[in-house]
Amino acid sequence: MAGKAEQLLKTVVNGAEDKKAHEIVALNLQGISLVADYFVICHGNSDTQVMSIATEIRKRAEELGMRVRLEGMDTARWVLIDMGDVVAHVFHRDEREYYHLERLWSDAKAVETV
């Protein structure tokens, strides 16, 4: 991983890890979708934790100079953070189980971000 999108991906995953996000999954969408190069999917166990994870991801992306669009903070059940090449989905645990994006994007390969 050497490019700008990969650097952003690692930054997003690190931000989520620092706020104790659960079951962080990064999916490579290149060649599958024009929406983004990568999806990061994770969850928190409370509204407060979801907001904390999303806020940290936004802060770190903005520090890299990324333009960030955020949706869903008002309910903190599914927060979408669009950073262009990387889109993060921060779910409340219950919503993640219901929507199960990993299944919807099963053609995408999981990315090792360590």
E-strand count:
6
According to CATH, the homologous superfamily is Beta Polymerase, domain 2
Number of domains: 1
Globally, the shape reads: globular
Strand content: 25-35%
Radius of gyration based on Cα positions: 13 Å
Number of helices: 4
Average per-residue pLDDT, rounded, comes to 91
Structural class: alpha+beta
Structural commentary:
With 114 residues, the chain is an alpha+beta fold. It has a single domain (4-110), classed as Beta Polymerase, domain 2, CATH 3.30.460. The protein is built from four helices and six strands, in the order αββαβββααβ. A six-stranded mixed beta sheet has the order 3-4-5-2-1-6. It is globular. The termini are close together.
Quick description:
By secondary structure, the protein is of the alpha+beta class. It is 38% helix and 27% strand. It has a 6-stranded mixed beta sheet.
Give the tags.
six-stranded mixed β-sheet, alpha+beta, globular, 38% helix, Beta Polymerase, domain 2
Structural topology:
Blueprint: H1 4-18, E1 22-28, E2 38-44, H2 47-63, E3 69-71, E4 78-82, E5 86-92, H3 93-99, H4 101-104, E6 109-110
Parallel strand pairs: 2-5
Antiparallel strand pairs: 1-2, 1-6, 3-4, 4-5
Helix pairs in contact: 1-2
